[in-house]
Design brief:
Number of helices: 14
Mean pLDDT: 97
Bound molecules: pyridoxal-5'-phosphate
Radius of gyration: 21 Å
Number of strands: 13
CATH architecture of the largest domain: 3-Layer(aba) Sandwich
Oligomer: single chain
Number of domains: 2
Low-confidence stretches: none
């Protein structure tokens, strides 16, 4: 008997490069001999305000029930979301983060021999979802300003295409598609192709840019809108997100999700924050102020950045393909964690999450020192 794995593995599984997240604070502290308390992490688009107090209170109550399985149907949370969006409860699917939703969509509609369309420099999970279901990726070049090229994406749809992923705003570029353009796009996508509209950063949009995506869900039975509690709601560690789609789609996603994919504490916390308008407003304001702070510094340093509609900014830190990795390492040594984006084919750039004023200032000072040095 050999002591090596002898089970045939599909080539498309072997080809997957695992997801690489922002580096944890404890890991960076260990590796660079730094004090954890002094490390600034601006690498995963987390909410710098931390965990909302409303969620903490709800979780404390829910702790009493932890010996029992969660409500697999998550009745209360679905009812809360249905009320919030004015849709029936059976239009909602919950996920362990919206990541789960993106993957569920692929498992429901993709298969070997099918293709998925998404934009270059768009969220890496679309590639992973396509790969793990044996599908073929059709990656559409971005516009000159790093956005989704919707006419080109439409033209890229082939007979075997089953999913189109759109991120609005997109991560890691922060670009935004005006609703009027999405409207035209949705009306032209063939009805046998599912559109997954990933709105993880929707709550950071300025009021005048907001729009009602559920209106599209009413009009388009092939649309899945995906949202999350991880970003503006500050619950990234709990893993809870949701999809809004018509019931036929919801029913399919429900068949393949894990029965208890959103745990008891996550359900309780998410329900509590749906109505925490104050926390959401503060998240929005801190983000706007931080965006101004970071982009003013980039301008002063003569660094190019992509105007962002999310809670992060993509900034170009050099001209050569080693620049992103080099500046990232130098920042790590100074206790600043940001995100290199070479895996998005942006090796000269870094993605910086917007933090509290003092965190942004620490990053700016370190960046200045690194670029001078
Ligand atoms: C962060 C992010 C998500 C989802 O994160 P979850 O924590 O899994 O909800 C989805 N899409 C984009 C574009 C993101 O940046």
């Amino acid at each position: 008997m050999s002591n090596q794995l002898n089970v045939p593995v599909p080539a498309y599984i072997k080809a997957i490069a695992p997801y690489v997240g922002g580096r944890p604070i404890a890991e960076v502290a260990r590796e660079f001999g730094l004090d954890e308390a002094k490390i600034v992490k601006l690498a995963s688009n987390e909410n710098p305000l931390g965990f909302p107090a409303s969620a903490e209170r709800a979780m404390q109550k829910a702790v009493a029930d932890l010996a029992r399985y969660p409500d697999g149907n998550a009745h209360d949370l679905k009812a809360g979301l249905a009320r919030r969006f004015g849709v029936p409860m059976d239009w909602i699917t919950l996920g362990a983060g919206s990541n789960d939703i993106l993957i569920l969509a692929a498992h429901a509609f993709m298969q070997p021999g099918a293709s998925a369309v998404y934009a270059k420099h768009s969220f890496v999970v679309y590639a992973l979802a396509t790969q793990e279901t044996g599908g073929r990726a059709i990656v559409v070049p971005a516009t000159a300003d790093f956005g989704h090229d919707l006419p080109a994406m439409l033209a890229a749809i082939e007979a075997d295409t089953r999913i189109v992923y759109l991120a609005n705003p997109n991560n890691p570029t922060g670009t935004f598609l005006p609703p009027a353009e999405i409207d035209v796009f949705l009306a032209k996508v063939p009805s046998n192709v599912v559109v997954v509209l990933d709105e993880a950063y929707n709550e950071y949009l300025a009021p005048e840019l907001r729009f009602d995506s559920t209106d599209w869900v009413r009009r388009f039975p092939n649309l899945i809108v995906s949202r999350t509690f991880s970003k503006a709601y500050g619950l990234a560690g709990l893993r809870v997100g949701y999809a809004i789609a018509q019931p036929e789609v919801t029913d399919l996603l429900n068949r393949i999700r894990q029965p208890f994919n959103v745990n008891t504490l996550a359900q309780a916390a998410a329900l509590a924050v749906i109505d925490d308008a104050d926390f959401l407003q503060r998240s929005y304001e801190v983000n706007r102020a931080g965006y101004g702070q970071l982009t003013a510094a980039f301008e002063k340093l003569g660094l190019r950045y992509v105007p962002s509609y999310g809670n992060f900014v993509l900034v170009k830190v050099g001209e050569d393909a080693g620049a992103g990795a080099r500046v990232n390492l130098a920042l790590l040594k100074r206790g600043i964690i940001v995100r290199p984006v070479g895996n998005y084919d942006l090796p000269e750039w870094l993605r910086v999450s917007i933090g509290l004023p003092e965190e942004n200032a620490a990053f700016i000072a370190a960046l200045e020192a690194v670029l001078e040095g």
